[in-house]
Amino acid sequence: MSTRQGTNAEKDAVGFLETHGLELIETNYRTRFGELDLLMWDGLILVCIEVKYRRHSRFGQAAEFVTAKKLQRMRTAFEQYLLDNGHSPVSTPVRIDVIAIDGDDFQWVKNVV
User: Fold this and answer.
1) CA 95, CA 86: separation in Å to the nearest integer?
2) DSSP states of 7-69 as a string?
3) What angle do CA 11, 37, 10 make, to 5 degrees?
4) Which of 11, 37, 62, 85 has a CA positioned 20 to 30 A from the CA of residue 29?
5) Domains identified in the chain and CATH numbers
């Protein structure tokens, strides 16, 4: 997938999530542990969102490409984001979600970790 396709998929995901009431904080936040695609508020819950896009499912569904190793790296990077931005990792309500986009179909998997 090209960088442009990834950026477009993230923009589409933001639009989709905003229609469901989430508020964008930041995109492509980088830590030494990895990059976080989207950070958004869902009410009082701070949500880290991984975006996966596949134009077609010939080689598998987009959601299948989010591995346990990737989720562990996301969790560690998200904890670093909390510390870097003055949020308590203990008292801040958080969630990690995945938006899987297969062509024009969106699948929102909440609380994957």
Assistant:
1) 17
2) HHHHHHHHHHHHHTT-EEEEEEEEETTEEEEEEEEETTEEEEEEEEEES-STT--GGGG--HH
3) 15
4) 62
5) 3-109 (3.40.1350.10)
> In whole angstroms, what separates CA 36 from the centre of its chain?
6
DSSP H or E run through 97: strand 94-102
CA–CA distance, 75 with 81 (Å, rounded to integer): 10
Q: What is the pLDDT of residues 67-105, one digit of tens each?
A: 889 889 999 999 999 999 999 988 999 999 999 888 888
The pTM of the full predicted model, rounded to 2 decimals, is: 0.87
